[in-house]
Amino acid sequence: MILLLPILILVGLCCYGLMKQQVPLAQSLTILCYIFLFFLFLIGVAIDVHPYDKAIDPIDNGYEFIAKQYSLIYLVFFLLYHIALVLLWFRKSALPPLILALGLCVLYIGLFFNGVLILQLLGSQEGAGILACFPAFSLLLGLSIIIRTLYDLPKNLSFSTSKYQWLNKINEKLSTKSALFCSSVIAILPVFVLITLILMLFGEDYDAVSKALTETTTWGFSQHDHPPHLPHQGHYLCTVAACGSPQLVKPLRWGIRGKQRIIVNRQLQIANAFEELIADLSPTLHRFIRKNYDRYGYNLSKKIKTRWASNLTYILMKPLEWGFLLCLYTFCLRPEEKIRRQYLEVRG
């Protein structure tokens, strides 16, 4: 919920700004969709933060898909790409040829970064492909901006003269559509090398682009194995099932969780079956939900020490239980079978 607040505020401000500027509906929807996917991507970045050599609980956390120590070049090109995207989207007709050429060049490089990031995310061993939606959308948007820019440009570009003669000469040479396109393509390697050299002055490796992807684990270009996973802490609704009034919480049987015996009731089974469903559909979303559930649920479970507190928690959880059950019956072929198999029964 804390993460949703800035998202809602930003979306609200964007809606207000778009309405005030009378931006066409299609562009407004594109911008809002882009913002939504970006924040979804940020959620994944916030969850998948651990280096490949650290042991984690994969239910709650994930491994970084861009190695943090080599991520500076990705951040720089991310910023440059979006600056170029905004300039060419909204001000292409007012830009001089040199800026247009550099903007197109940066977009070409950005398409490459988006492409390799898509391959990195789609190659995940944990099914985190949903994160690839943002770079995929960004790639398509960048490609459409490039095509629209080149298509809409006149054969000969006009530009304001500058007091610097060398700048006027460059703009004049780039004032035709063909010259602009060719120069933007030719500039890809020099611009990339120049930015890489500048970043090397700040300690970045010359091969940071590849190392950022390979010095990871469980992703598409990963070259490392991770340590054994840590055991998962489990479900805090077990506290309710164990401490609540039997007439209310209706314990069914003993079960096993993490090699420990626990009391299982139907509410716990349904919640765990729903969690399993989310994990199957979207491991990234599951990790986000589980991480926050563990963070706040553990503190809550420590406060549930009396029978009446367990009973109250059970009652408050009922609407969620019904929602979980509705989802299970909607998306599962055999929901009751999925519910029944949650937590193996201990037999004497």
TrEMBL record:
UniProt keyword Secreted, yes or no: no
Any matching Pfam family: DUF6688
Record InterPro entries: DUF6688_C, DUF6688_N
Keywords annotated in UniProt: Membrane, Transmembrane, Transmembrane helix
Domain DUF6688: 25-229, 234-344
Tree of life domain: Bacteria
TM ranges: 29-49, 70-90, 96-122, 129-151, 178-202
Name of the protein this chain belongs to: Uncharacterized protein
Source organism of the structure: Capnocytophaga sputigena
The organism's taxonomic lineage, starting at the top: Bacteria, Pseudomonadati, Bacteroidota, Flavobacteriia, Flavobacteriales
